[in-house]
Specification:
The complex is a heterodimer. The model of chain A has no long low-confidence stretch (mean pLDDT about 95). Chain A is about 0% helix and about 50% strand. The radius of gyration of chain A is 14 Å and the shape is globular. By secondary structure, chain B is mainly β. Helices cover about 0% and strands about 55% of the residues of chain B. Chain B has no helices and ten strands. In chain B, strands 1, 3, 4, 8, 9 and 10 form a six-stranded mixed β-sheet that branches. A four-stranded antiparallel β-sheet of chain B has the order 2-7-6-5, with no helix packed on it. In chain B, a hairpin with a 6-residue loop joins strand 8 and strand 9. The radius of gyration of chain B is 13 Å and the shape is globular. Chains A and B meet through strand 4, strand 5 and strand 10 of A and strand 3, strand 4 and strand 9 of B.
Chain lengths: ~120, ~110
């Protein structure tokens, strides 16, 4: 079964450092997403990406965050200067959308745990 | 056992019982709903979805019920198994957005 893969599985960084989280979405999916989950809390939407540009973003996704699809397979999330409160599990997801039915089933990766010290 | 909304974050059941996990959603404009299962150390996994023009949808051992009048969604799991132990999230999608907004989650614990 196709899956979304994420690397690294765990990254520890110092506050103020830049972090890049990587994702390989499912190959025939056109829509890509980043969500995050702070320990014990709900899964929060960060950003969606389609056709090489951001299509939607939440208020969490401020100027410290950026996304990129540098080639035909990878989708990255960059945090420019990490803060303690950026510590969370970051999930990448991809989907196809059925515009007729409105269905949008996201397939999530296993996540990248970011710990900011 | 029955969970009364996501204000009760943990539901414990015995293996073989039926489980009901409830979710109150907030946006009356939401027209598409999804249940996700998240096992420890993994990402959310799609279970079942339902559109707002339906009030019931069945899958394998799972049934989702939608009551738009009171903005309530439930997930019923028949003959619950230890492998069903996980956190279950409901997610809603508002018309035109396509972006699922997750609820808080309910932890289901199945005792053998």
């Amino acid at each position: 079964e196709p899956e979304v893969t994420q690397t690294p599985s765990h990254q520890v960084t110092q506050m103020g450092q830049e972090v890049i989280l990587r994702c390989v979405p499912i190959s025939n999916h056109l829509y890509f997403y980043w969500y995050r989950q702070i320990l014990g809390q709900k899964v929060e939407f960060l950003v969606s990406f389609y056709n090489n540009e951001i299509s939607e973003k939440s208020e969490i996704f401020d100027d410290q965050f950026s996304v990129e699809r540098p080639d035909g397979s990878n989708f990255t999330l960059k945090i420019r200067s990490t803060k303690l409160e950026d510590s969370a599990m970051y999930f990448c997801a991809s989907s196809e959308r059925d515009s007729r039915s409105g269905a949008n089933v996201l397939t999530f990766g296993a996540g990248s745990r970011l710990t900011v010290l | 056992g029955e969970s009364v909304g996501l204000h009760l974050p943990t539901l414990s059941v015995q293996e073989g019982d039926n489980s009901i996990i409830n979710c109150a959603y907030s946006n009356s404009a939401s027209d598409y709903f999804i249940w996700y299962k998240q096992e420890s150390g993994k990402g959310p996994q799609f279970i079942i979805d339902i559109r707002s023009n339906m009030d019931k949808r069945q899958g394998q051992r799972v049934t989702v019920l939608l009551n738009k009048t009171v903005k309530h969604l439930s997930l019923q799991i028949a003959a619950t198994q230890p492998g069903d132990s996980a956190v279950y999230f409901c997610a809603e999608v508002s018309g035109g957005s396509y972006i699922p907004t997750f609820g808080r989650g309910t932890s289901l614990i199945v005792h053998p």
